[in-house]
Design a protein that fits this description.
Blueprint: E1 9-13, H1 18-28, E2 37-41, H2 75-88, H3 106-119, H4 126-131, H5 135-158
Parallel strand pairs: 1-2
Helix pairs in contact: 2-3, 2-5
């Protein structure tokens, strides 16, 4: 993109249903290998040796969020949204946008983890962002984690001497 960040882009052609393609790739590839952007082409241009001419593929930055914008509904979603906006360099992020589909990558996962864990005492692990790719999914996961820790603390406090 214009900031010289690299993104994994899937170029495809033909009668492909995008949702089915995304699901097919999700079933076969780990989160960090999921494309950030999907671009449909009428046809591919080929080199004289019969290979796809990569120089003629359209150049573009990471996805701008291919879902309808859904604003944060809770304070936790607002915190996560602010973190994602800062890490991804975006003005706003829908709580339903997948981190990796809007420009996230394995290096940016670390930045998100540090910021979230500074706010919520190591509640998030690296794999969690791959398993819960949207703000609403991570917020739900964190709510479960944080409420479980509170209940556990209360349980142990009962038995203090």
């Amino acid at each position: 993109d214009e900031d010289e960040n690299n993104y994994l882009v899937a170029y495809y052609s033909g009668d492909v249903v995008l949702a089915e393609l995304k699901q097919w790739l999700r079933d076969r590839l780990p989160g960090y290998m999921q494309p950030s952007l999907y671009i449909h082409l009428d046809h591919f241009e080929y080199t004289s040796s019969g290979k796809i001419d990569r120089q003629r593929l359209p150049k573009t930055g990471a996805g701008s969020g291919q879902t309808e914008y859904v604003a944060p509904r809770t304070s936790l979603e607002e915190q996560l949204s602010a973190i994602w906006c800062e890490v991804l360099g975006k003005e706003k992020v829908s709580v339903t946008d997948n981190f990796f589909e809007i420009g996230g990558n394995s290096l940016r996962v670390i930045s998100v983890l540090v910021a979230v864990n500074n706010l919520h005492e190591n509640a998030l692990k690296a794999g969690d962002l791959y398993n819960y790719g949207t703000i609403e999914e991570i917020a739900g996961f964190l709510n479960t984690q944080l409420s479980g820790e509170s209940a556990e603390k209360e349980h142990f406090e009962e038995f203090e001497l």
